[in-house]
Amino acid sequence: MAPPLTITEASSLIAAGKLSPVELTQDCLERIEALNPVLNSFILVTADRAMADARAAEARISKHGPKGPLDGIPIAHKDIYNTAGIRTTGHSRLLEHNIPEKDATTVAKLAEAGTVMLGKLATHEFAMGGPSFDLPWPPARNPWNPDHFTGGSSSGTGAAVPPGLILGGTGSDTGGSIRGPATLCGIAGIKPTYGLCSRAGVLPLSFTLDHTGPMAWTVEDCAILLQAMAGYDPDDPASADRPVPNFRAEINGGVKGLRIGVIRHYHEVDHAVGEPTRNALDDALSVLQDLGAEIRDVKLSPLADYAACAWMILTTEAYAVHEPWLKSEFNSYGELLRDRLALGGLTRGVDYVQAMRRRRELCVEMASMMAGLDVLVTAVQPNDAPRIDEVPKWAMFEKPSLMAPFNVTGYPAISVCTGFGPGGLPLGMQLVAKPFAEPLLFRAAHAYETATPWRTRRPEMKVEASGVA
Asked: Which residue segments constitute the domains of the chain, with CATH numbers given?
């Protein structure tokens, strides 16, 4: 198979009449057929729908030209996004036969942009319980080494992008569920500002922490997807009623003169990362500095403060979502999710209220610190991907999450690849900007990405007559 295309590359070829959406979709379906038995990234492939979408795009483009950069581009959705007439399960036995009547708002917006829908992608059960081996579908596996973990909960999207099963896809992020898999699978993924993208029609986990957003091979591809996904939606009470900017308007502006703060104590002290991750992050900061950015060390409250606040809110709100089923269908959940959800039933009202009060203090602290900065940088994951059968049930509580602060505050955060560890598995960093400063965030991340060689390397999954080697 030829190397996969990015959205940017495929869009340009389609617009020039050098690539057919039908041929591109067929290529993706062939990759899915060959590689998904190993990766388990899809739990439902909608091949007939995909080909119908592709033919419609091809006819439309041949007559009128592409309606935009996503016209004819094959994508897929994390299986917590409702898809009208197409099964949406949350990767759970409880919704094994659930068929929504209406698309999630973001699904409809991406369809309107002309995308080709290839199917539904694996997730951790209800975006929290995984990797689980006691569900109707197996967990997704890392394309750089299928014995290893993808991160979660947007696991299927993370696994499907690197080998080109999809050109991009949707994820959700409540405590790191876009950025974590993006890092461990070596792709780009952005958790937008809270309220920028609608959550209507997306299975909830935590009412005040959930974010929807895109994942793709490059920063620019994420910007293209976000352009279609973003916008006010009255069906989401948290949706921000404000104009959507052009996310690629500044993308080639570079970082010269940008003030970049580094929260070193997060990844050096509060949750000390492994040497390969730290070295890759130091190298990335050197690249940004060489490109003209001003690098400053900054301090915030201990990472544990942000993480404890996040997990108190998340577990309480998740329990509130699932309490009726937990009381009537407890054993229908996978073991990991039911045990994690049960914690929320032990929370006192006063504990939740105090967590929300502490959240407000942390938001004020973050805003004050960011007043003199353009971008923040820190690690995403402490190490490269562990073996999938060695992920502890309570790993999320063993050390404070490096991603949680930006769910607590709602700030936009993007994960980009910073190279590879000794075993050939990806490493990454996250860049963070002020609320609704996604154009600047894309600009900084794109500058780093295009100054480094990491986007030229894809996983070497060899397709043989008997399957995948």
From this structure: 8-468 (3.90.1300.10)
